[in-house]
Amino acid sequence: MEKDYRMGQIAIKADEIFLLSALAHLRVPLQSAGCEIREGVTLYLSNSEDIEKILDMLHKYGAVEEQLRKGENPQYANDKMVVVTYQPYYKEERMRAFLACRNYLPVLVVGGIIPMQLYSFPNIVYVDTQKIIFHSTQEREKMYDNFINYTHTHTPDMMEILKNFTERYLRNDEESHLETALLNMANLFYTYVGDCCCEYDTRKSDFILTKYRIRTMCRTMADLEGGEAVLDLVRRALDTFITRHAEIQGGTLDRIEGKLREAVIKKQAILFDDDFYYIPDGILREAIAEQKLGISLPAIKHALQLEGVLVCDGTKNNFTVKKEIVTSYGEVHRDRFLKIKREKYDKDAEISLAERISLCI
Question: Which of 5, 47, 81, 186 is least enclosed, having the fewest CB within 10 Å?
């Protein structure tokens, strides 16, 4: 059965993003309470186009943005969150060195497709950006600031709350260090809201919903690989699209005639030979769009190229190749296609793409 790790109907609120930022401000007290976060945080967004929105929120809560360079890690104080946005040229060992930094809370932000080199990274916070509320009220923002100030001026009270909550509820091997820290932060925040903000009487219900969101957000890459691997995503999208759209035709390059010829002219045909599938760019674009995944098509193509599934001609940012097509009637068509290796595409699939096409036409 296919796994589905997307969020339920409850949207992530600004509270959860704020709590992630608060981990940096309270990193040392959390460590003293036995809730230390090891190896930083990898913040994975379902839509790479929403990275800037998340960065804006994190900046608002005190995060600083950096890039990974050769040599030493960025240098900041204990209460800082340092955010680095993933780049394809970053080497795995360099990213791990950054996330292992203990002088502040390091956060690696990744959007769209999961790079294969990150599959083994710990402490994943998964955010389905289609279901996140990117704004909060001015009143709520003031409450966040007051909460941070409160924790700095009431350290003994805060440590007692952290210690009690950890001992009563979080002595459980099922929770990761990250999940434990976020749940502890949520309890601390809503305790403050209930005790110090008399206009709010929803502490218990808010905490229950936030606890649900946190447990949905905290993932391992092994979880996400099962639900979001790029090739699985593309297979599912194309299978669904071909099944729904009778106008899509398919066949071999050496016999292009009848309905297949008409589909080639309209760019509605998937062609293949012994080694490759030739898919019009528009078919993949529409198939991905129908899935409403919120992931950019260039990111998908780039991931397919990195995995050796998509063969390109070397032109930067152009993932298609030119192909001359000759119909059974001698007509010559020159078009660009996505050139997909059949062996890699069909490996581990229930049925091959060619078989799927033959079943639907």
Answer: 5
Distance CA 44, CA 218 (A): 10
Write down the pTM of the prediction: 0.60
Residue 149: Cβ-neighbour burial (10 angstroms; 0-12, 13-18, 19+): exposed
Rounded to 5°, angle at Cα 281 from 278 and 285: 130
Please state the rounded mean pLDDT for residues 265-273. 95
CA angle centred on 319, ends 256 and 263, rounded to 5°: 25
Beta strands 124-127 and 332-341: pairing type? unpaired
Q: What is the mean pLDDT of the chain?
A: 78
> Cα separation of 361 and 356, whole Å?
9
Q: Between helices 177-196 and 203-217, what is the axis angle to 10°?
A: 160
Distance of CA 139 to the CA centre of its chain: 30
Inter-residue contact 193 to 143 (CB < 8 Å) = yes
The answer to whether residues 188 and 195 touch, using CB atoms and an 8 Å cutoff, is no
Q: In this structure, are strands 81-85 and 64-66 parallel, antiparallel, or unpaired? A: parallel
Type of residue at 175: E
> Cβ–Cβ contacts within 10 Å for residue 9, how many?
5
Neighbours of 333 (CB within 10 A): 14
Tokens of 302: 């780039």
* Rounded Cα gap, residues 172 and 30, in angstroms: 17
Separation of alpha carbons 34 and 36, rounded Å:
6
As given in the structure block, the two tokens for residue 190 are 């809503």
Per-residue pLDDT tens for 53-82? 888 888 888 888 998 887 778 888 777 889
In the beta sheet, which residues pair with residue 85?
109
